[in-house]
Amino acid sequence: MKKLRYRLFLALIVLVVSVFIGLGLLLGQLFKTYYINSFFDEFQKEGNLIIQQIEDQGGTSTLQTDQIKKAKEMINANITILSTDGKVIYDIGETAEKYKDHHDVLSDIVKGIQTNKNGRKYIGSGLDIFYWWDVIEINGKVDGILVITSELDELTVAHKQLWLLLFVILGLAFIVILFIGSKITTNFIKPVESATKTAIELAKGNYQARTYEYTYNEFSKLNSSLNILARNLQRITKEQEMQNDRLRAVIENMGIPLILIDDKGCIILTNQMYKEMFRVEETEIIGKTYLEVFEHEDVKQIIEHIFMTEQKIRRQITIPIHIQMKNLEVYGAPIISSNNEWKGIVLVFHDITEIKKLEKVRKDFVANVSHELKTPVTSIKGFTETLLDGALHDEKALESFLNIILKESNRLQSLVYDLLELSKIEQEDLKLNINQVEMNKMIHDIVDSLRKRAEDKQIDIQIFEERPLTVEGDSLRLQQIFINLLSNAIAYTLPSGKVEVHIQDDDEFVVISIADTGIGIEKEEIPRIFERFYRVDRARSRNSGGTGLGLAIVKHSVEAHHGEIHVESEVGKGSRFIVKLWKIMPKDIR
Length: 590
Prior knowledge:
Blueprint: H1 2-57, H2 65-75, E1 78-82, E2 88-92, H3 95-98, H4 102-111, E3 119-123, E4 129-138, E5 141-151, H5 153-204, H6 220-253, E6 258-262, E7 267-270, H7 272-278, H8 282-285, H9 290-293, H10 297-309, E8 313-321, E9 324-336, E10 342-351, H11 353-388, H12 395-426, E11 435-438, H13 439-456, E12 460-465, E13 470-473, H14 475-491, E14 498-506, E15 509-516, H15 538-543, H16 550-560, E16 564-570, E17 574-582
Parallel strand pairs: 12-14
Antiparallel strand pairs: 1-2, 1-5, 3-4, 4-5, 6-7, 6-10, 8-9, 9-10, 11-13, 14-15, 15-17, 16-17
């Protein structure tokens, strides 16, 4: 903008200087011409008076020198009188001494007198000497020629004074014009500069920029319009940002993975849930085509179906994502603008893996409960019917059948108890009676209560402990956990085996591990052992009297204490269950 101001100001200076130079030359020439014409008219009047005086005296023959001298002094010029043949009759002055070609000029005047009786002539490049002449007539005949010569010193002085005056006047005018021009230029450029700066800031996206509104200025409408535009842009941008923020917030917090694909098949938007589910970075997929991003043919087919049919689609698929198999319900729809212009498609992925798993668990649970209940109920019913059919009077058969009925009844009771207990633990509002529990004493008491069962199988139970350790928890629930784990360890350990219990201090936690030398668990079965009714060896576990719910109760009880449980196992060598409990449970998780 400064360049524009300098260019305009320079153009104004050049224009003013050019006009002043032209005006000065014109005025100088006009004044010079006017002065010379005035000088000539004065000489002509004075010369005519001298000629009249000479003619009145009788001509050049009766010329009186004193009168000529007085005339010379009066007009302050050199006077020369010539005869018609060119002879100098009278010459008074210093022209001949100063100007060497004086006589040649006089000769030219005499020669040209026939065609031009009076005239004037300037000698010198600067009009140094002025000649004026006219003829002297006596009775209608030419008696002589009067030549008046004058140096134009006054003209030179006047010319210099004229130029000085013009220079002063035009200089002052130039200064005034520059001052006024600078003001005008500033008044015109300043609003333009302000408007331009504001426009540049608006182009950069700074919609808070404003320009000064000049009240009395031709650009006031421009500046006010620019400010209105800036305010409108700021309002529109703010509204757009709010809409974008809302849309982004909805997309990011909708709780399900979402992805947008444009009409060319390129990924243009995704949310955090999608990146977390598929474990990708935004930079890895944005701008790429869906063919490059998706490796799963099922997803590609859904996208291509929407592109070809322009119809909504909902489909359930099972795809591998890293090391897991995911059950997804994919909902896809075309994005069509209000003027029926194709914009792309949107895909929403509902992770129904847990739902499918819960459905399977529910089905398995129903099947397992039915199976587990069916066995004791069938036994009780069968032996009861046998007794009613006549075996009641056989004392040996009666005692045997009643013992079996009692055993199955106890098993049925245990199953119902474990189901109720598991249901109670799984409730979200389960209240734990939190107290300080001495883990060493509890483990010793549980081992003592189970020692007879271990001795019957010749199983050696050893406890390894460093020092007395306490945890915060519900003593009854914790006792239930370790009774189940130790009972399982004894039940699944072969005779003459060994069970080890380690109680260790681990900073904020107490770690209790129970290791046996039992049958072990297959690696792929380890994630399922905490499911209801899941048995590694169904025949052995049923014979041991278990309900298949013990480990499920253990898992939920540990989670209720905000602890951790891990399993390490190898088939044929045994298993190790590791339980990690808080010494002091943090307040935010109580």
